[in-house]
User: Fold these one by one.
Assistant:
Number 1:
Amino acid sequence: MGLLRCLLAVLVMASHAGWRLGDVNPGVSAVVIFFMISGYVMTALLHVHYTRLSAMGAFLLDRCARLFPQFLFYTLLAGCCVRSGLLPQPFWVADTSWLKFLGNFLMLPNGFYMFLGMDRALVLPQSWTLGLELCFYAVFPLLIGGRRKLFAGALSVLVFIAAWSGHLATDVYGYRLLPGTLFIFLSGSAMYDLRKAGQPAVLLHAFLLAVWLGAGALYIAMRLHPYLAVPNNPSVLVGILVGLPLVYGLSGRPETAFSRYAGDLSYGLYLNHFLGLWIVQAWLTGATVLDRVVLVLLPALAMSAATYRLLERPVLRRRRRWRAQYERSH
């Protein structure tokens, strides 16, 4: 799924460059598919390396070691551009108070920007998703066990429907916070469980089918009642409808070396593309969406390759040693 992850990062970049498909934001749909992939990969990680609840601390340390090295670098790089005035100050960091600025580096507050007054203080606007990922990592080890995951998934679906229908803030609870998105992560987890012998396949298949058919029913209802087509309802539902069969189909296939490398580049591309788009916006005000994507993509991939090699790969080697040591000691 490495190549898919890279293509999803490109879709996020294109959406931030201004690309839309009607009322569907392809970047939002891509993020939803990222959530499914995360659920799949985290389930594999827990089953293989961190099989006990007592391993939760080691699991969280592993995840922080994965997320923070490149994140801190790109946050610092973009933050220097913001604080130094090298580039025109963009609207998404109009609030330059030091407390909010430094809060960016903690990652977790970015996932709650809407409650912390950071909606105009995110150095990397897309980093809210990483705060959401951290929330998922903190909760997920408590849900290992088929019935617990299914129950939590069902509750999350109810929150999502409440947000979809406007009874809760749609964009917040239907896309950006864990209560309304947990079922998307758990859909990916269910796909991994289906690959494991001895799992309750009937219940898992029923859960995945219910999520997919339910998303289809909500999408049809939304088209029949356009007042429900508020951000980001169409995009999230499209992400579920496309992502479930796509991730399920790819999850059982062997990974090629090219696909693995593309996946290695995806995180850096996800983090650095906004800075590239900002530079293009500052110097080429008349650039089209295609111009922005073409001008940013190759430099962003090259920079991602550099930061993967220099920052992430050394930590990856240490993470593997930590896992091996943890397994020997437990």
Note: Residues 2-329 form one domain.
Number 2:
Amino acid sequence: MIILPAERKLDWKHPPWMTLALMLTCLLVFLFYQAKDPRLMGQAINSYLSVELDELELPLYRDYLERLQLRGDADAGERLGYLDYLAAEDERAGVAVTLLSDPAFLDYLIENQTLVMTTAEREYWLAHRLPIQEQYIDQLSVNEAGLIPAEPSLYRFITYQFLHGGWGHIIGNLVFLFLLGFTIEKALGPGRYLLAYLFCGAVAGVVHGLFHWGDPTPLVGASGSISGLMGMYVAFYGLQRIRFFYFIGIYFNYFRAPALLLLPVWLGKEVYDHLMSEGSGVAYLAHAGGLLAGAALILLLGKGWFQARETFYEPEEEVRDQAFAAAYGAALEALARMDFDTARSRFEALWRENPDRPVALEHLYQLAKLRPDLAPYRERTGELLDTYLRLQQPGNLVKVWQEYQELAERHQPLTPDQHNRVLFAALRNDDMGTAEKAFSRLQNEGSPQQIREASQLLAAEFSKRRMELKAAEYRRQTEQL
């Protein structure tokens, strides 16, 4: 069973670069650094079989597993059965891989060599087995950079998070990293997100090490870090009801639930799987540790350094579009009833909440235009000019300015700065006639500095267009200032 939070949709306008970088790092490590492992293991197997170490170690390994089975290790029985199958099929390579891949068995032999081997066997074993271990097995990526509870090292709490045990392992982790990572990265920003990700992975490694103290088997994979992302996800939403995706067998669907209520469900599942799947090789308690670390990080520091950015709680674009469409429709209904006061208040609310959508302001401008002799029309014109300038819409800016000149300039003159902006916009729109009109307005009320700069600009623009008479006219005006 899989349960994943699915409240957010990815916004490719703002890609999750850090999540993509983490995914790429894991993939590159797997493709290049871990690519040496098959070669090393192949060399180890050939060397191991060439000196017939399997004939010496196989009976000892059976005895070792039987001892574990008597101590209540349920996994030992399964391993014995698998060993019998390999022996029956004469799969010497499979036997070699099994014996070479069990570091606990090697430790057992080193500690008990005088008890389980004769002097001649011990000398032969030491002369051949330990060199194979040092030259090949110890050079495997999991032994170089994996997290080994029996040999804890600070750097391994980070490096193990980028190693994986096979294609199925890495593909599964990368999918979950992407599905969860883009949301947490949006909440924290790339820098704090990376720190939180690595911290959760390190805590997951600590929890695994505490429950497997002295175990020489390496731990690898990003699962603990990804579990931390799940813990952070639900902690950000708290008791807010959010959408979850679930998959059982071949059936999948969505449901809504208070976010934090899923945390004990996930924890219970990891603990149950740990108890019921002993020897599976899956670090369920590391997952539980990552979950708790991620949730605790936000619940304890969520109002401080790990506080979510304000943009994280903004409604998604689809939700905002729906809300805007409903409010815009209500405003248009009021306008159709000629209830101008209600329409005006609704458009004003829309404009305050959606400054990136000028359509509400355009309606306010049209309403104000009903009385061009009054101050509100000038105010709305100024707002619309600023908006079109910010949105880089010079054509609309010039159009509004021209309309204002016809209707209201004699009642409520615009400021010199506004005329100056129109001049620049008209030049960008290659509208020299409007640019000259804006300059004539600027001449009446602008400062000498503004007029000088504008005349110099017009002279240069006319000169570019090979209109030398016009260019000379504006040069003379510049010289007279």
Note: Residues 35-144 form one domain.
Number 3:
Amino acid sequence: MTLDLEWVRAQFPAFADPTLDGWSHFEAAGGSFACRQVIDRLTRFYTQRKVQPYAAYPASALGGMEMDEARLRLAAMLGVETHELSFGPSTTQNTYVLAQAARGWMKRGEAIIVTNQDHEANSGPWRRLEEDGIEIREWRIDPETGHLDPEGLVALLDANVRLVCFPHCSNVVGEINDVAAITRIAHDAGARVCVDGVSYAPHGFPDVGALGCDVYLFSAYKTYGPHQGIMVIREEFGFDLPNQGHHFNGDVLYKRFTPAGPDHAQVAASAGIADYMEALSAHHGGPTDAAGAARHAHSVMRDAEKARLQPLLDFVASKNSVRLIGPADADRRAPTVAMALEERGADVAQRLIPHRIMADGGDFYAQRPLAAMGVDLDRGVLRASFTHYTSAEDVDRLIDALDQAL
């Protein structure tokens, strides 16, 4: 069903704010606008529930119930058990804690496979384990296309590999990796799998249960919610790793990898993401149960994004002065478009401001893939990223602005 953009934008207060009127948001890969459902829940928690949760008195009990609701509904949307989903201050922090757990799980001489396609958050923490005698093997991208070939993984796997870490899609390359197929390859070799979903999840929640990976991480603030990191860790793997939380929380999976106390209000407000996904599905003729709504919303969102994305890709690919990073086919990628230019990406982003285009330039913590593709890190790239609430008119405005700025 065709996305009802008017209805969608009515769910995001940013589109009604006069300070943002006339601006086109092409910085979604750095953080999305928050939906009204999340903002309302956050306001309610700070107004009515801002006490220590899980006590017997009403304000406390309701606060705890709302935190539990967020975990319950988001886990259902992701196709996993409720206790397999946990919150942390950011995906970078969640990955760091997970890597510290792996430090005690692995032995010297065992290996982790990482990629040079990743954002640094799903690369750096694992690479640091080399200090403890863990072998780090790098699964490398094609330097021309940025593609991560599964055959390259096969060549790296052996009995010493305990963990394979890779992105669902890169925050600069944009190509969507076949997580289910890659996970099967790794599992067949006896390795666990950790997937960075930060750049994919804003474009529709995946069915993590069906993907089969052992860990899936993404950021709520990029999926229309508050500034929290969300981590799925499957039960078998989670209890195989040493507890990183308080000793008395060691038998609770969603507390094992949260060394500090959770942000009560932001966890509770994350249930608003589920509210929004269910409402989007229902408005577009889909189911309202959590899992069904997530799948339907994913389909509607992706169809809308691909229709907006292809004209931008065609334009960028036609420019001799621009190198498009990643595939030129909207079916194969997320709407995160990095462009290597003959000048600094940040300088071109500045020239887009008079056209009311919100975009930026730099390396976006993706120095490894950009360097592997021969991009000058001093210049970086210009990146234009969007999500389903972006209109065709926004994309036309961006194309016109780029045509003048380049």
Note: The mean pLDDT is 97.
Number 4:
Amino acid sequence: MATRNSVDECIQKCEDAIRYAQEQYKSGTQQEHYHDVEYTQAMQQLEAAVNDVAHLANSANSQQREQLHRMRLQLQALQNEMILLDHDPNVVGGKLH
């Protein structure tokens, strides 16, 4: 069974990943393609957080699973936003370079 501490630590890690990803998303919308490494790292952190939540949910009680499920939905929503943002470094102004 997942401990309260392990769930709290996972949630904190997820919130940190969300904050970092939101910063990179905002930067990506303003500065276009100048921070590709950071943007990719933010997406990787989100994916790692989703995987951590899924793994922890396997040993969680029903209340913890609900909390983890809500966090997973937040993470995946942000992942989708970041994927949909036109942030391909090879495409500028809709043209391949």
Note: Residues 17 and 46 are 6 Å apart (CA to CA).
